[in-house]
Amino acid sequence: MHTSGPGGDTRLKLRVTNGSGSGTIDARGCGSSSLSVTISSTGDVSGKGEGFRASCPVFPALIGPFTIKGRAEGNGLQLVLSGDLDIIRVLLSPAVATQPGGAFDGKYSGRTTTSGGTVPVTAIVNNNRGSITLNKAGCSPQSFSITISPAGDVSGQGDLNCPVQVATAVVIGPATITGRAANQKLELLFATNQGAPFTATLDKSGN
After folding, report:
1. Which of 75, 194, 204, 207 is the most exposed place for a label (fewest CB within 10 A)?
2. Distances in whole angstroms, Cα of residue 37 to Cα of each of 22, 69, 116, 127, 158
3. What is the pTM of this model?
4. Are 132 and 122 in contact (CB under 8 A)?
5. Cα 178–Cα 179–Cα 180 angle in degrees, nearest 5
6. What is the pLDDT of residues 101-131, one digit of tens each?
7. Does residue 76 sit in helix, strand or coil?
């Protein structure tokens, strides 16, 4: 667990693994002080830190060595840092890691042209997973889920409940989607066990 707090002129960072943790407390104009903690199986926290030099201009600043007591509650830590002159109470919450987006993330739009006319198609992709929607006139939107591999291969599935006319056949029923993502486009092939497959090309239209 990686936690941080409380902000302002003083900031405490603590990384905890398997009940043991180490970190720093930083105060503006005072530098950085190291600290360490242990967390018992019942959630009790104990530890110690080096503290800051006497010339530190921040108050409270934990001048000199300090002790740490507290509790692990839920996903956070409630700590009391006690020095000879100062006491600081801190509530630490888990830091949220920012996940990198997928290479093909974004919004896409296009259409498929069949014997029954043109059907608008849109897609939203996030972390290389997304949904595709067919908006055929006279029918409710038809949604399909897709995943995109790092190499750009598209696969997905869903139920095509509104029939699509392809040549002389009607395409309807459980559908699979295959295709490729490349050059800011999605090239898709929709196929069911009834009727011929049909294609759609979608261009990236936004993030």
Report:
1. 207
2. 6, 9, 69, 36, 51
3. 0.51
4. yes
5. 150
6. 678 999 999 998 877 778 899 999 988 889 9
7. strand
